[in-house]
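Follow-up to my earlier ticket, as requested here are the two runs.
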Amino acid sequence: MSKIVCKPRIFKILRPEAWAAAECAGTVAVEGDDARDGFVHLSAGAQVAGTLARHFADAESLALVAFDASALGDALRWEASRDGALFPHLYGALRADAARAVWRLARGADGAFVLPAEIA
């Protein structure tokens, strides 16, 4: 039996302390690449592993936060990025209360982050 997904999910990868701060503040802080580029960088499920390898090589643990793409409205745009692939970019605040799932990612024996079964 295959899993039915009602709404497409997109993901934000954060250091655990940044996610904890977002839960307290109500929104994800705009900093780093997000502040430089003027939008919140997100990934589709199939893009998460590549994003982890490219942008989080030095991290020991991370928070992977899932959001329903349809809940983010018109502020969410799919735009060409790495190798011309379309990535979700949010031109607005990413509200912590819009999160649908949160996972703590750790590295496996091979050194790569172990992804949840839902997106692996």
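Run two:
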Amino acid sequence: MLKEQPVRDLLNETNRVLQHAVGRGITHDIPISQKRFFENDVFVFSGFKTYNQLKEASLLLIDENGAVKSFDRFKQDILQLENTYNGRYLDAEYNFAVSSAQMASKWLEMEADGDRYNLQYRTANDDRVRPGHATLHEITLPQSNPFWDRFYPPNDWNCRCTAVQVLKDKYPMSNSHEAQQRGDAATTKIGKNNTNSSAIFRFNPGKDKIIFPPTHPYRSPRCATCSKRHNLAAPMSIERCEACFEILRIAERTEARREVLDFAKREIIGQFTFEHNDFTANFTKDSFKKNLRYNDFFEAKADILKNIKSYMPEKNAEYQWERNHSPEKKPKIRGYYAFQTAYKGNVQGLSGQPVRFKFREWQSGDIDFYHIHFL
């Protein structure tokens, strides 16, 4: 179901909102590679959120007696589900993403100092602080202490706690074992099925390079221990891992689109034109985006676009002129130029495959790069 466009639209909108939260939260300069880890984690989380929402929606079709619900009842249940996932849940997830990104970027900055300073846990120190978190206030330990692997903030939804560097001679060192016990107590909330719903927050976003809990119920139970932690592609033996595989494919293609568009902006658009005996063609951001819009031959097209200059033929190459066959639909287009060559990349099964490049001529006489088509 994740392949359907309306589902992809929901996934992308959820991702857009949560990526905005991460952008707000990053208050320290961090390497681009670290940002990519965070962005990938948020995208995968958004994919799992979408998957769980739709899975739950499908279960609402049947009532408690096993019969199909009336449309009105099903509609009301769907509206309630939508308000839960895209209202209450999303608000908490947005706030968590802001806080998690802030603390992750802070950790990465403090990490360079190692144990030169101690870290001190601090709450907002007001009447809204959770009692469990209050017991962690002013716990002071070296950054290398295992306490911070599990209890570095945020430690719950809407948690406002933080950690700060302090001089070693200013605050006494806490007892590490006692601190661990307090951390365990602060992140213990026994709920349904006698499970601890707060245990998911026992992670360090900066050290683990993720924004959301790796054991969040949206995800597969295998995610936390998956050997491909940042790829999250577990064996296909359980349904959520299968969904993860598809989410990951979408994430990889999103990253590939970004790389191609960054390359185009940096080296092609406004800097490179293709000159032929009959015309001069420009390259636009829109043409790059359109060629990556669909999944057919996606990897090969991305490869071609990143090496577009090497595919442009010599000036005496033979071209085919094609008039505009739909002037009523595209009155501003005069026609197209096309030339054929072979794919020179290494995408499996496509090496040497014929590929056609089309250029579009406008009524104004301007010509721009338009389309890549595998034959």
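The only thing I checked on run two: The radius of gyration is 27 Å. Let me know what else you need.
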